[in-house]
Amino acid sequence: MDHRGRFVIWSRYRCYFFIVFLALTLIIYNTDLVERTEDLVPKWWMRFGQVVSTVVPVITTYSNSTATVIQNATLQQGIELSVTNINTTMENSTVTEALTVPNLLPAKQSVPIEPYISPGSFHVEYPHEYHFIVDEPKECQEKNPFLVLMVPVAPHNRMARDAVRSTWGTESLILGKVVSLFFLLGLPSGEGAEKLQEQVLQESREHRDLLQSDFTDSYKNLTIKTMMMLEWLSFRCPNASYAMKIDSDMFLNVNSLVHMLLTAPQHDYMTGLVAKWAHVLRDPNSKWYLPENVFPDNFYPSYALGLGYVMSLNLPRKLVEASRHVKAIYIEDVYLGLCMKHLGIQPTDPPSQNLFQLFPVPYNRCSYSQIIATTTYTITDQVNFWKDLHKPGPTC
Ligand SMILES: *[C@@H]1O[C@H](CO)[C@@H](O)[C@H](O)[C@H]1NC(C)=O
Ligand SMILES: *[C@@H]1O[C@H](CO)[C@@H](O)[C@H](O)[C@H]1NC(C)=O
Ligand SMILES: *[C@@H]1O[C@H](CO)[C@@H](O)[C@H](O)[C@H]1NC(C)=O
Ligand SMILES: *[C@@H]1O[C@H](CO)[C@@H](O)[C@H](O)[C@H]1NC(C)=O
Prior knowledge:
This protein is α/β, with parallel strands linked by helices.
């Protein structure tokens, strides 16, 4: 192809891109930016509206070298984590019990009471001693998984959990490796919270795949959810090799993921879609706004996008330790990037650029058999794509 041909194709791409960009801008402006839980809005690609989405056919070649994966990553013992072994079969536990907070110190007449200073709306209540009120303490010990999939989801979103349970959540033995799956929940709040909590406890008895900690489940509390995930992993699954945090509306190809991990580094390893030199969003209307007094730098350190990132199991403990020295912000993936920077560890690009996809990839069996994770427009898409891909027959 001569240069002129390439130029024409490029300008057509730019034209497409411009239209997509305009559409995204309109969508963002017209979206009511109400506080909602993570699995409803916003879509991931909105954060990167400026990224060109070129849909490139996926061509991945894996090396055939046999993997030597140390199953039992050794972990130093001793860190005191706030995971408590609370019996999940407690039928009587209620939200209110879990939230009981000791009363304020008895006021002494002689000591003047300090005026209350609000920590501000960007304050994230972490570190803090949260507790798991729904736990699966034995799962990792008994099954000894190679990979643990962690899916944050709002308590009310049973539909998303059932979609995962009927698709990639069923893949528990891949290439001879055990894969475990857990959903991460906070506490429901607002109207109907008590009833919802009862349903959550019932669902946990049915499926034994829920982990629920006693912070209020909300978008602004996602950093707390991620940190509780890391506390739980380092405490409950220290012998697993890898963990992946993945959103419930993502398509996941567990086979490709395990395949990649068989030859991946075993320590200090984090991969996914790695954002570099990402701008801090200063528009107060942005879903990801951070004012300068909360985060003075104009760029974030490299971080793996929260839609799906993978880490070696020696990292959760290190990240929890780092969090004691790095002030929490509510954007959970950026916060992990800050903790990684504190540790002096860089997130790594995946072996092929096509493995993780920010923009929904149009479905075809061949490309979906080779990617690891992609966003989808709807949960129905996710379910249908997974089911089609797992029909017998050639993929490419
Ligand atoms: C959990 O509670 C049930 C009944 O409430 C009891 O039978 C079981 O032994 C308890 N398990 C643990 C680990 O405490
Ligand atoms: C739970 O409730 C039942 C009856 O409602 C009662 O018999 C039982 O002792 C309670 N268990 C705990 C641990 O409070
Ligand atoms: C991890 O492995 C060690 C040594 O094999 C074992 O003693 C320990 O019980 C395991 N821990 C968990 C939580 O599986
Ligand atoms: C986050 O959780 C904490 C602990 O439950 C709670 O005090 C706080 O109000 C929650 N924040 C939001 C924005 O929901």
